[in-house]
Amino acid sequence: MRRKAGIIQIIKEIINGIKKQTVDLLFPRRCPLCDDVLPVFEISQEGACICPECKKKLKIVKEPVCKKCGKPLERERAEYCLDCVKKRHVFVQGKAVFEYCGDLQQSLYRFKYANRREYADFYAAEAAKRYEKWIKQHNIQVIVPIPLYKKKQKKRGYNQAEVFAKALGEKVGIPVCTDLLTREKNTIPQKELNETERKNNLKNAFKITKNIVQLSYILLVDDIYTTGSTIDAAATVLREAGCKYIYFICVSIGRGF
Ligand SMILES: [Zn+2]
Ligand SMILES: [Zn+2]
């Protein structure tokens, strides 16, 4: 009897393997860095795939980093980046996976605008590898992606932060809530503005759509962290609604001083 069950299990595994390879053949996976199609048999089981050459080029965020926003720092002994020394953030702490430089910039551009949603698997696998422990230490109850303005999302077809959040949630086993926070304003891209304009641009940009009294620990998720104004604006409405501890993870971040 036990032997029979064992054989059935083996057959099931073989069928699943074939199914996965068929999907990979029909929808070839691309390297998140150079965008070349990856050979099917080189793809690892978690789908966290990248060409070996590209992997060497990636710049992973490493210590020393700012204790607040997670930016890699030039000065060995500094605790915070100059930005975090000057500014009081609403979030408690944040982490980022890659440095925003080199080919990763184009990778994120394609992820956001060219429908390369599959890259999320790789980004999330790297994020989970580095920060799963940190996420669990901070008792994160739910992962919330930074929302896009509804019309913008309709036009683009998806929200890249949401795609990343779902991939990460699956890897670390934490629920993702995509309808808790909405974007009420079609804001101008932050990179085109100075710090004061950024703040005004984001005023009343986000709204809470649910009762969140039972949530004390939320992880916000976005693709790129620059000055933190977006994360702070989202964290502000979450705080006002009663959530005390807001953390974030971004796919990438610039260097700090
Ligand atoms: Zn590559
Ligand atoms: Zn900082």
Q: Can you give keywords for this protein?
A:
257 residues; alpha/beta; Rossmann fold; 2 domains; four-stranded parallel β-sheet; two-stranded antiparallel sheet; 9 helices; globular; binds zinc ion
In short:
The protein has helices at 2-26, 52-57, 82-86, 103-113, 119-137, 150-156, 160-172, 195-202, 229-240, and strands spanning 93-99, 142-145, 181-183, 206-208, 217-225, 245-253.
Characterize the structure shown.
- Helix 9 links the parallel strand 5 and strand 6.
- This protein has two domains: 1-57, no CATH class; 61-253, 3-Layer(aba) Sandwich (Rossmann fold), CATH 3.40.50.
- Helix 5 (119-137) crosses helix 7.
- It contains nine helices and six strands, in the order αααβααβααβαββαβ.
- It is of the alpha/beta class.
- The chain has a four-stranded parallel β-sheet.
- The protein has helices at residues 2-26, 52-57, 82-86, 103-113, 119-137, 150-156, 160-172, 195-202, 229-240; strands spanning 93-99, 142-145, 181-183, 206-208, 217-225, 245-253.
- The structure holds zinc ion (ZN) (2 copies).
Major sheet: size, sense and barrel closure?
4 strands, parallel
Ligand catalogue: zinc ion
Helix proportion range: 40-55%
Total separate domains: 2
In the CATH hierarchy, the architecture of the largest domain is 3-Layer(aba) Sandwich
- Biggest sheet strand line-up: 1-6-5-2
> What is the β-strand count?
6
Unreliable segments (pLDDT under 50, ≥5 consecutive)?
Answer: none
Helical run tally:
9
